[in-house]
Specification:
Blueprint: E1 2-3, E2 6-7, H1 33-36, H2 50-60, H3 74-86, H4 91-103, H5 113-118, E3 119-121, H6 125-141, H7 149-160, E4 165-166, H8 168-173, H9 177-187
Antiparallel strand pairs: 1-2, 3-4
C-alpha cells in the first residue's frame, strides 16, 4: 500500500471487500472503470427466501452456544490460494474464458450485436484471469480437480457485471449488465472438447 511517497508492505493474505447499499448511494460517487476492474466479483445479495429469513431472525434472537474448534488463519488462507492455483484448467476452458472477455468489448470483431449496441465498456484481460481462478476455486469446492466450462459460465455474472457497463441506449431501454451477460453467454460458443 502506498500513501504519498511511502510504501507499506501488507502481510499476506490481504484483500479488500467493499459493500454498496443501494439505499445509501445518495452523495456517493461511482468508482471509475479502472478501479472497478480490480474487484474480482460483484455479487448481488438480495433478501433471502422467507424460510431462510425466518431462520436468521430465530437464530440471531436466541441464545447460542457456539464453539470454534480452530479458526482459519492467514497462513491457512495463503495455503488455500496456492491450492486453487494448482488446479488444472484445460486450454479450451481458458480459451472460453478469454473468448467471453474479448466478446464483451463493444469494438471487438467477436462482439455479438447486443454488446455492440448496448455496451459502453467491456471486460479487460483481468476478467478472463478471474473467470479461470474463480473456476478453479469453484471446482475445488465441488470436490473436482479440474475446471469445467460450467464453472466459467456459473461465474460469468459475478465476474463480468461490473466490467460490462451499459451505454445510454441500454439504460434508456432498461437493458442491464446482467441481461447483456446473458446475451453474451448465448452468443459465445463453448469449444467442443467434451469438458
Amino acid at each position: 500500500m502506498t500513501i504519498g511517497n511511502e510504501t507499506f508492505r501488507l502481510p499476506a493474505p490481504f484483500l479488500v471487500i467493499a459493500t454498496q447499499n443501494p439505499v445509501e448511494q445518495a452523495g456517493t460517487f461511482e468508482l471509475p472503470e479502472a478501479q472497478l476492474d480490480r474487484f474480482m466479483f460483484h455479487i448481488v445479495i438480495d433478501h433471502p427466501p422467507v424460510d431462510e429469513e425466518f431462520e436468521v431472525v430465530r437464530s440471531t434472537t436466541s441464545l447460542l452456544d457456539v464453539e470454534f474448534e480452530r479458526p482459519v488463519t492467514g497462513p491457512d488462507l495463503v495455503a488455500f490460494q496456492r491450492l486453487v492455483r494448482r488446479v488444472p484448467a484445460a486450454e479450451p476452458v481458458i480459451r472460453y474464458a478469454l473468448d467471453l472477455a474479448r466478446a464483451s468489448r463493444p469494438k471487438s470483431p467477436t462482439a455479438p450485436e447486443p454488446i455492440k449496441k448496448w455496451a459502453a465498456f467491456g471486460a479487460s484481460v483481468r476478467a478472463a484471469q478471474y473467470l479461470v481462478l474463480g473456476g478453479k476455486a469453484r471446482a475445488l469446492t465441488a470436490g473436482r480437480y479440474h475446471v469445467s466450462f460450467e464453472d466459467i459460465r456459473a461465474l460469468a455474472h459475478p465476474v463480468l457485471r461490473h466490467r460490462v457497463l451499459t451505454n445510454f441506449h441500454a439504460q434508456s431501454e432498461g437493458v442491464t449488465s446482467d441481461a447483456l451477460i446473458d446475451r453474451l453467454l448465448e452468443a459465445v460458443p463453448m469449444p467442443r472438447s467434451g469438458m
